[in-house]
From TrEMBL:
Record GO terms (molecular function): hydrolase activity
Entries under InterPro entries matching the protein: SurE-like_sf
Natural source organism: Sphaerobolus stellatus (strain SS14)
This protein's name: Uncharacterized protein
Length: 63
C-alpha cells in the first residue's frame, strides 16, 4: 500500500500539492510526484514509469 501526492513548484519557491495530477497553472514551472511506500514500491513505480527500456538489474545499498 502506498500513497501518492503531486506537487507543483513555482519559480518563487512556493507551490501547491494535489491528490490528482493536473495541468500546470500560470507561474508553475514543474510537476513532481511524492510516493509514500516501501523502498521496493517506490523503486518499482519509478523504474516502470520513468525508464522506457527494459531493466536488467537493480541494486540497493543500505547504510
Amino acid at each position: 500500500v502506498y500513497s501518492t501526492v503531486w506537487g507543483y513548484s513555482c519559480s518563487d519557491g512556493h507551490g501547491d500539492t494535489s491528490e490528482v495530477s493536473r495541468s500546470l497553472r500560470e507561474g508553475e514551472v514543474a510537476e513532481w510526484i511524492l510516493l509514500d511506500g516501501t523502498p521496493s514500491i517506490c523503486a518499482n513505480v519509478a523504474l516502470r514509469n520513468l525508464y522506457p527500456d527494459e531493466i536488467d538489474l537493480m541494486v540497493r545499498f543500505l547504510l
